Amino acid sequence: MDDSKTRSADWAATAKRNTVRLGYWTFAWVATMAVATFGPKYVWDFATLPTILAVLVNLGMGFGMIVANNRYLQGLDELHKKIFLDAGAFTLGVGLVCGLSYELLENIKLISFEPEISHLVMLMSLAFLAGLIFGHRKYQ
User: Fold this and answer.
1) Per-residue pLDDT reduced to its tens digit, 54-66
2) Which residues, 6 or more positions from 81, have their beta carbon under 8 angstroms from its beta carbon?
3) Single pTM value for the model
């Protein structure tokens, strides 16, 4: 009995550590994205070297976040992996269908502005969040 409690405590500690690590990597990636986005305009007047360095650091942080996300996923139990996978599949579908339709609206002149990738990122974030919430409620 103590052995199962120990394994449960170890799993919970590992899950928490992986979640915190993913949070740090995500924060670092978002912060370096902000630096790469706003630094050229507001800090170093579009100088090439700092801009290239900011983008490279952002890419590095992004790859670190991907590795942390993989480690997070590997630490989940089967049910949580299924919920995450289902939410990811839903997000991929929403992103593909809505993204292509959004671009099509401009191509066929139904909207007068150019579609922005940030709109798609926000939609996909909301779709993933909705998929996670639905999945957790489904299996409660």
Assistant:
1) 999 999 999 999 9
2) 73
3) 0.81
Domain boundary among 75, 96, 123: 75
pLDDT value at position 10?
84
- Position 9 scores a pLDDT of 78
For CA atoms 63, 65, 71, 74, give the dihedral sign. Answer: negative
Query: CA-to-CA distance for 127 and 94, rounded, in angstroms?
Result: 7
Residue finishing a domain among 54, 75, 96: 75
Question: Could you give the number of structural domains in the chain?
Answer: 2
Q: Assess whether 65 and 89 both reside in one domain.
A: no
Please give the residue range of the domain that contains residue 38.
1-75
Provide φ and ψ at 107, rounded to 5°: -60, -35
N-term to C-term CA, the chain: 25
Are 28 and 58 within one domain?
yes
119, 102 in Cβ contact below 8 A? yes
Which residue has better confidence, 14 or 20? 20
